[in-house]
Amino acid sequence: MKTRVLIVDDEPRAHAVLQNYIARLPELELAGDCYNAIEAYQFLKKETADLIFLDITMPEIDGFGFLRMLDKAPPVVFTTAHSEFAVESYDYNAIDYLKKPIPFERFLRAVNKCRQWLDNSISLQPQKTTITLKVDGEMQTIALDTVAYIQSLGNYVKIYTDRKNFLVQITTKELEDMLPKNAFLRIHKSFIVNRSRVSKVNDEELLVGDTTLPIGKTFKKYVRETVGR
User: Fold this and answer.
1) Where in the chain is the domain with CATH 2.40.50.1020?
2) Most CB contacts within 10 A, which of 20, 27, 101, 172?
């Protein structure tokens, strides 16, 4: 599976350099480009990233302030032209700290450190088998292996399982963050599927049981690389 990378930097030149480096590594995928903290915050409310290359000195809200806005941040590699922030960066559990201009070899070393961290993190986590959510005022435990797919309905989601369907007041992004990434896949802004339930897939849609679900334009490449067959 490719590592999805988000670039957050107010300098177009920095974006161009990192985009070029990302394109040279087949194991990476550019998830998004953001030019300020607010834009990045809004992006992460709707999309996912496995790694952020984050500038520190940005107008209004700097890189440190951006991380304080997040409940749970992906692994971060700081990128900056200033070396004086190096010590403070470790307070934010940064994977690495790159000083601009960034040589490709140094970028590659940071990527390898991140992928090693991600591999270790996944291997140390016990496989989640259930989720507990409030349904009709009562706490309900749902076995994840019974879930076929999940549909977004604004501030609610509908969870389709083998036994019954559940309507839950939670956003799709909040629920997605609760699910094991190796078992569930976002295919559309309105749909998350259980990977093991996908029987057919093409460029436009996939089949889960007897249900055909659309693949969103921005998700097509990721879906094809993840479950395409």
Assistant:
1) 130-227
2) 172
